[in-house]
Amino acid sequence: MKPIQQAAQLACHDIYDPVTPKAFGKIYRVGETVCGTAFVDDQLFIVNQGTENRAGWEADADIVPILHPVLGNLHAGFFRNMPALVKLLTTGIGVGFSSKTPIIVTGHSKGAGEAILLGACLKLAGFNVVQAILFACPRPGYQRLADWLNENLPGMSFRNAPADFPALGDPVPLVPIDPYVDPYPHAMIDVAPDGMQVMDPIAWHGAELYLQGAGR
Questions:
Q1: What is the mean pLDDT of each run of 10 residues along the chain (216 residues)?
Q2: Amino acid 196: pLDDT
């Protein structure tokens, strides 16, 4: 399975409750943040779960920025649990992975917003984060973060929208509004929801649609 398809399977299906049995070597929980790790073809996928409960929605809405000394202003709800999660993950050195292990970070929705900040923090801590693959990612920070990612962490950020009328598509990757910015230019997919749901922008946000789009 190609990395994009593997990331979509893990981020848009396997990590959501109930977490798919045996998909992950370990699951980490910090507050409302849920994160799984999976070794596939000698690469470590680190996968953050999207919103599943009220605490997750509250984190989504907590957009007052936190200033990071390197990455600049970051979405508080996405960043708050990342330092503790980095500490938990890195206690696995010598047991599950090392600082040289190729790492791909991924997630859908809130999970994508957390994943990109987690990837940046791991990269700053000296780990070999080679790629970010994001699905329906809300904007996780200001321009300083986007500039740092452009220079230090290759990635792609998928948005689902009709090709002939992208304004109708998934609104989540377009928020929060300025001064928040996209982590990467959007890679567009076009997988419509069923029936009359096609007229509902939030219906384009469904994780299963991103899973379908990644397989095309």
A1: 95 97 94 96 96 90 95 98 94 73 97 98 97 98 98 98 94 97 98 90 96 88
A2: 83
In terms of phi and psi (left: phi > 0; alpha: psi -120 to 50; beta: otherwise), the region of 177 is beta
Query: Which CATH number do you get for residue 188?
Result: 3.40.50.1820
Domain span including residue 115: 3-214
If one counts the domains in the chain, the total is 1
Residue 61 burial (CB count, 10 A): 10
Backbone φ and ψ of 146, nearest 5°:
-60, -40
State the burial class of residue 5 (Cβ atoms within 10 Å of its Cβ: 0-12, 13-18, 19+). middle
CB-based burial, 88-101: b 16+ in 10 Å, e otherwise? ebeebeeeebeeeb
**pTM reported for the whole predicted model:** 0.96
